[in-house]
Amino acid sequence: MPHTHEVGKASRLPTPEEVEIVALVPLLEPFFRGAVVRELMPEPMREAMESNGLTPRHGAVLPHLLAGPALTVGEIARRLHVSLPTASELVGGLSRAGIVKREQDPANRRRVLVSLADDYRPHLESFVARRMEPLLHALDGLTASQRAGFLAGLTAWVREVRN
Question: Whole-prediction pTM value?
Answer without folding.
Answer: 0.73
